[in-house]
Amino acid sequence: MRRAAVFAMLLWSLGAVAQAPDVATILTKVSDTFVKAKTYHFVGKAEVIRDGLPDLDESLQMEIVIRRQDRMRFSFQGKMLAIVNGDQISLVDAETGESKTMKRQPMPVDTGRDEDLLENTDRGFIIRYRSFASVPQLARLLPEQTIEADGGRHACYVLEIRAKITDPEANRAGESKGVYTWWVDKDRFIVLREDMRSADGKYSSSIVFSVAKVNEPLDESLFRVPVK
C-alpha cells in the first residue's frame, strides 16, 4: 500500500513537471497577451543604477493606459501628461497645470510608416514582449518566485533573456544589448517586474508594476484633462 502511494506520488510529480510550459511557450503567451490586448493599464516605478550609483534623473514613476484606437494616458515623473481622447491630444504640464490640445494626426516615425502618438506609445511599450517571443533560444527559465505586485502576491515564472538585438524594429526602438529578467504572472502571462542589466554592467534598471491590468474596464476619468 505504501509503495503504491509513493509510486502514485511519483507519477503525479512527473506529470506536473511535464505540464510546466517551456520558455518558448511562456514568451509566446506573453507576446499574445500584449499584442492581442484591447486595453491595458500599468503603473510602476523604475529604479536606475548607473556606474554603481542611483541615477535620480532616470529613475521615474510612469503610468500608461491604452485603449487601442481611441484612448491613451501616459505620464512620467509627475511632470508631463499626455492624453488621447478620440481625435484629440492634450499635453499637460503637471507642475503648472497648463495644457495644450490639438488634433490627433499621424507623424513620421522610425518604422517607415506614419503613426500617431497613441500608436507610437503603444508600440514602444510592447515591443520587447513581441520581439523576444521570436528568439526563445536567448532565454532560460530560472526558479519560480512569488512577488508583491499589482496589489497582491503573485506566483511567477522567472525568465532571463540575453538580448542580442536581432530584430531590426527593436534596434530602431532603442533597445540595448543586455540581460533582461522578467517575472511573469503564471495565471495571466503579464510581466509584473522587469530587471535589465547592460552588457558592460555599467547600467541597470528595475521596475515593479503596482498596477498591471490587461483587458479590464477602464474608467473614463483617466482620459479627462485635469482641471487647473
Strand content: 35-45%
Percent in helix: 10-25%
- Helix count? 4
The general outline is globular
Shape-level CATH architecture: Clam
Give the low-confidence spans.
5-18, 166-175
Write a short abstract of this structure.
The chain has one domain: outer membrane lipoprotein receptor (LolB), chain A. Helices cover 22% and strands 42% of the residues.
Structural features, described:
By secondary structure, the chain is an alpha+beta fold. It has a single domain (22-223), classed as Lipoprotein localisation LolA/LolB/LppX (outer membrane lipoprotein receptor (LolB), chain A). Helix content is 22%, strand content 42%. The chain contains 4 helices and 12 strands. Strands 1, 2, 3, 4, 5, 6, 7, 8, 9, 10, 11 and 12 form a 12-stranded antiparallel beta sheet that branches. Strand 6 and strand 7 form a beta hairpin. Helix 2 (23-35) packs antiparallel against helix 3 (117-131). It is globular, with a radius of gyration of 20 Å. The protein starts with a helix and ends in a 14-residue tail after the last strand.
